[in-house]
Amino acid sequence: MTPNAPDGPGSGSGSSPDADSAAGRGISRKSLLKAAVAAGAAIPLLTGTVALARDAVGQGSALPATPDCDDGDGPTHDQIEGPYFKPNSPLRTNLVTSGINGTPLTVSGYVFGRNCVPISGVLLDFWQADNAGNYDMSGFTLRGHQFSDAKGAFSLTTIVPGLYPGRTRHIHVKVQAPNQPVLTTQLYFPGEPRNNTDTLYDPALLMNVRGAGSGKEGTFDFVLNVNGTPGGPSDPPPTDPPSGTWATGHSYTAGDRVTYNGTSYTCVQAHTSMAGWEPPNVPALWRAG
């Protein structure tokens, strides 16, 4: 599918998200960052041009949460986010499949809580345009999800996305710590001419990008709006244990059926279960019914 319109507001004559936020709440953080970029000023932590979140670990101060970058569909993140999102992407860290051309790109980083503690088992669901600026809406080309490892790290192998009308170069991602809300955001590339005209662009979401042979390497650390613990986000245990046949530490295969708190679920992808991956929390792994 070839996009012929931007996947968000600001492509027409209406007011931009920054203008709306400035009118409703005063000058927004995004507006200040854009002004700083225009003036050539150094951007603070998490812009991707100066420092990564890991650089602040051990300094004793809380990390600012990674901002949302909404495509105009409102806050219902468990439904469509932008016209090109598709649920149930395959579990994989390499999005480059047969026939995919473009500049090789790896994106790596960590997922932290506000208290600078890395979070394991975080779901990261990526999707992007191909080298020509097209999104695959019939299959799952350049789409995939993965989970952060025991140290909170992730790594994505893909290509540099192409451009299409109304948008600068970007990669979409949904990030969800176990049993926590979904952060829906986008990653941007430094030095792109369209960064100055894309109304969705946020300099706080810039990656660090450098050349790597014939390709590029990008780095970005997500900071979720939760407090992390070595085993994941800190949540009080439930007052009553959940009922059902689903259990942690079990190797499930596609098609397996379980119950959880009175609801039946079917396994979508093979995995070994862990705390936080209860069926209602990870629709990429379990489908109700």
Automatic annotation (TrEMBL):
Residues in Chitin-binding type-3 domain copies: 243-289
Cross-referenced InterPro entries: CBM5/12, CBM_sf_5/12, Intradiol_dOase_C, Intradiol_dOase_core, Intradiol_RC_Dioxygenase, TAT_signal
Keywords from the named record: Dioxygenase, Hydrolase, Oxidoreductase
Hydrolase keyword on record: yes
Name of this protein: Carbohydrate-binding protein
Region span, Disordered: 1-25, 63-86, 227-250
Biased segments, Low complexity type: 1-24
Family, similarity comment: Belongs to the intradiol ring-cleavage dioxygenase family.
Hydrolase is among the record's keywords: yes
Residues annotated as signal peptide: none
Domain of life: Bacteria
